[in-house]
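Chapter review: from sequence to fold.
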Amino acid sequence: MRDLLSISTNQDIVFVNNLKELQKIKGLSNKRLCIIKTDFKDILKLKNFCKNYPQVEFWLASKNISRQNVINANNLGFKNVIEFPIKQEVLDDLINNNSDKNQSYSENDKEQSKFFAIKGKKVMIVDDNHLNTELLAETLKALNLNLSIYQKPLEAAKVIDKEKFDLFLLDIMMPELSGYDLASMIKKTKLNCNTPIIFVSAFSDTENKIKSYNLGSYAFIEKPYNIKVVKSQIYSLLKAHSEIEEQFKKQDSFLAMITHDMKGPVQAELVALKMLLDMGDSIDNKEKREILEDLLHSTKYLQNLVINVLKKYKYSNGSVVIKKQLNSIKKLVGECCDEIKYMAFEKNLHMKVSYKTLIEDLYFDYDEIKRVINNILTNAIKHSDRNNNIVIDISDNKKNLIFSVSNSGVGINLKDSNDVFEKFATFCESEKSANSGLGLYISKQIIDAHNGTITFKSIPNERTTVTFTLPINLTA
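The token string follows.
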């Protein structure tokens, strides 16, 4: 979109060709509008990036405009989808309109910005009176919600166990099925048993209110109602419930992460213990002591993980907290290889370590980089063919230490190799195996926190290589 950039004199409007260009924009938070060219394949990544800038309005421009693409874009929070290439008259109107808006925010602008947090939330309205549903829909228009409106409660009842909703607004007195009966049905569904319910009714006596709250209603809106009050009630409820759900997701992610980190060491311990039992008296005391010392070392690592993981991660904002100290990378690599050697032994795999650098000591968080290396080596062992080598290369390019692990095996066929670093990204179906999809995601967070890079390359049925870099800093 370089031509558009040269034409536009409005500093509050920015045009980009893809996500990479978007990520390089300086001062994006100060822009009013950003138009992104897309083929819709990257729309989820765009959404994840754009949600960090709620004060900026994002539009999409594409050659592939279809009804479904537009609906998906709107549901993900993108206000407009326009045709690419953008016509000159559209661009002129765009610049003029946004130039006027830039003079000062209207009250409506501020309101729309406030409601961004709940944009696209799914709300079901059930009321047999079409005037009531129209009034509610108009009241909630400013919130940019995804509304499903039903005037026949039996029809609504057919949907509640098929679609997940963020809120139900129910009238009480309806033919065929009362709001109370529908609420009871909602509470029995798997998808919506925890979804908030609000009753909207003219029957506002104490008995009806108590009955509604006993059914789990979050609020009771009396007809006729104040539009501003209702809008505020629903906004506050949706926002609060969304934050609670997000916290639960972070807790689930946190528990999965701990389980993932424990899996490798526990597996190594099991193999070592099995060796001790299988060999019996045939193993001499010196070798037995060596295995027991390795087991003790692995157990201490698990103990340290349990004690420190809560201190090391701030899951309230998703950031990794690291403590850099001067450490020996050579010592760390040797330690990691020792801890997983029994897993390698089980598949008759040989670890080949090659040091092509004179740099041994540099600043990094020992425990966290150990987690990265252990994860990469565990994956390499798991996905290697038997009777092969796992090659570890350590080199430098003067600015960065380069750590690379390669193994021979089935590999993964990916269109975008960066997909392996997404949270919960798994390839169980193609690999015929089960995994949590957190290992490389966690590794990337740790390497990013060290200002390094991590890459994944795989040639199916040949070789897979994971490489990460660490800056060679003279100070922490």
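Two observations follow directly from the output. The CA atoms of residues 399 and 469 lie 9 Å apart. The longest strand covers residues 400-408.
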